[in-house]
Amino acid sequence: MEDKKYKIGLVLSGGGARGFAHLGVLKALNEESIYPDIISGTSAGAIVGVLYCDGYSPMEILKIMKLQNKLDYMRPTLPRDGLLQISGISKLLEANLNAKKFEDLKIPLIVCATDLNNGKSVYISKGSRLVTSVIASSSIPVLFKPVIINKIYYVDGGVLDNLPIEPLENKCNFLIGSFVNPVGYEPITSGLITIAMRTFMLDQTKEAQEKGKKFDLFIAPSELTKFGIIEVEKAEAILEMGYKETKEKLKNPEVQKIISEKLA
Which residues are identified as catalytic? Predict the structure, then answer.
């Protein structure tokens, strides 16, 4: 077997509050002594990723992020560049991260954001703008103001790449994907924010099926459609769904065979 740069790589998708399922995925993996050596994440995946790479356990991250009020995450603003401010997440990260730059993280992290000016995905893994990069990756267009870095406008990485496998392809012996944005029926209540979030999340799903084939282990709990993409108050239930799905996947004989071959 070819020895690649990293033993285990993990890719975390965006998905709003469904990103809590990533914590369940990590918890289940860690219980089986599977620990990622590098993480690539978009939006919610970048937020979970940066805290995990900073040294927090999945349950510690849940405790940090378990805010009962949606307004703790996003606050209304005057609609010029966006309807909401994402300052709550920024303050949460600044208050809890020990790392001040990417190089300070205990595990390498790659954050995917969208360069709005040049119309391309960017993958950030170096420098002192750690929190700023994660916020840029999480700034859903129209809802949140773009993040400006060196006169370039950045928005949510999911606009062009919601499952950022590209930076890790052919660099890991064992590659895991966690996709938390399934398509399915959801009741739509009136309201611009709800409709905008649903529209954006639907657009993100189109490439996931094809990309899923590239992973050695791909976790995509279909029943996450039971949870709204801004239902942060249901964090524990969402985490549990990711946990159970991963546990079931790890019982699969084919997955066990791949693990024994690639992680021996």
Answer: 43, 156
